[in-house]
Structure formats: structure tokens, C-alpha cells
Amino acid sequence: MNIIIFGPPGAGKGTQANNLVKDFKLYKVSTGDLLRKEIKEKTSVGKEIESTLDRGLFVSDDIINNLIEKILSEKKINNRLIFDGYPRNINQAEKLELLTKKYNQKISCVFSLNVSKDIVLKRILGRLICSNCGIIFNEYFNPPKENHTCEKKFLQKRKDDNEKTLIQRFETYLEKTLPILNFYKELNLLHQINGMAKIDDIYKEIQGIIASLET
Asked: Which fold has domain 3-116+177-214?
């Protein structure tokens, strides 16, 4: 079983992906992790990646696809993958389809967590992190209560959690992801999920879809 999970920033796809990894013994494939691994190991590809990123450019599809192919060729994790952050464009989606066939694998299902822009902004802009105890709160959904004994001065927001950047990321996601979702919809693999439901309810829905595929 190979799964792809999509969702804009703040949709909670990382949480759902981690649940799937744990319960279904899957291997999570994150392009960001793959790129960092190559850089850390100082491979020839890693040096090229680092140089590209240092110049503020995007890593080419060819490099990304080659890293994905290395993962797909590993027999010990054959048909046990969950893709988080890949494919990012229609070219990558088409390449993944070819690669899975090449290695006698297939994409079992594709989940898209749908969340409104307002909720995304509240989830991320409302995030408060206690620098003293490390607990994460949200001033809209999970505000610090009496049981949080640290002083208020320790509650901080991340510098990159700003509205302008988030709106841009959200709109870029929608623009680039819609063609990919349509691609998987035509393959009858796409499952639209209400990402504004409770975390546990979202996961139950995902589990139910997977169970229906296995019967």
C-alpha cells in the first residue's frame, strides 16, 4: 500500500501521516528530508542541491525524481510508502506514476485534507509556544489555561508565522496542487477529506477508506 497525502500549510497532514506510519508500518517519504540527507552526507548530488538552495533556487524535478526512484527501488519498503510533500507539480505526478509501474508498485489512494484559508491562518497565526516548558497552545482553539503554570512572558510566536507569508503559501499550494488532484481524480484514487474536523475524526475517516480498499 502506497499513499499520498496532500494539504495546505496548517492542514495537519504531518500529524495524519505520522499516525499512518505508526499504525500501518509505513515509511514516510518527505522530499525535504531526502534533500537534507544528501546534503548531510556530502554526496555529489547533495553538493549540487546545497548550491542550488544557497542561490535561492528550486531543486530541479530531475533531482527530486531521481531521489524518489532510489526509494522506490528499495525492496524492503516495497508498497509501504506514504508520500508527504511529493508530488509538487503535475510533471512529478506523471513521473511517479511511471516509476511505480517500473518497480511493480502502485499508488493505492490519495488523500486531500481540505481546510479553509481562515482556519489555516487561525491555526498557524494563533500558535503559541512556551519557551520554558515547550508546550504548544493556540490562542483560538487551545489557549493557555490555569494548568499552564509558566509565566506569560514565555509564550512566544514563531517569527515565520506571519499573515502575508502564510496567505502566499496557501494560494501557491492551491494553484500548483489543483492540477495534481485532478490527475488523481481521473485515476479514481482521490479522496477528499474535511481537514477542519477533529484530528481523531479525520483519522477515523482515513482508516475507514483504507479498510475499504483492503477488503
From this structure: Rossmann fold (3.40.50)
